[in-house]
Amino acid sequence: MATDVCAHITGTVWKIEVKVGDDVEEEQSVAILESMKMEMPVEAPKAGKVAKIVAEEGQAVDEGDVLLTLE
């Protein structure tokens, strides 16, 4: 079952730390968002494999926007 990893704050995607096909562990940092000059890691809610990356580095995102999908 697929799990979406979403932005927990409004900001800019500073860095995507994984690529499609990567295995990730629960609570592993998968992306970093920048908001108000602060860098905030986005962690995987569960272990899985990166199926799709929706967001791009430099993209503005709102809280709740999907960044990537795990399967």
Explain what the structure shows:
With 71 residues, the chain is an all-beta fold. The chain has one domain: OB fold (Dihydrolipoamide Acetyltransferase, E2P) (Beta Barrel), CATH 2.40.50. It contains no helices and eight strands. The chain starts with a strand and ends with a strand.
- Order of helical and strand elements: EEEEEEEE
CATH topology: OB fold (Dihydrolipoamide Acetyltransferase, E2P)
Number of domains: 1
Please report the first level of CATH classification, the CATH class: Mainly Beta
**Total count of helical runs of at least 4 residues:** 0
- The unreliable regions are none
Going across the major beta sheet, what is the strand order? 1-8-6-3
What is the CATH homology-level superfamily? RNA polymerase II/Efflux pump adaptor protein, barrel-sandwich hybrid domain
Please give the share of residues in helix. under 10%
Largest sheet report = 4 strands, antiparallel
Shape: globular
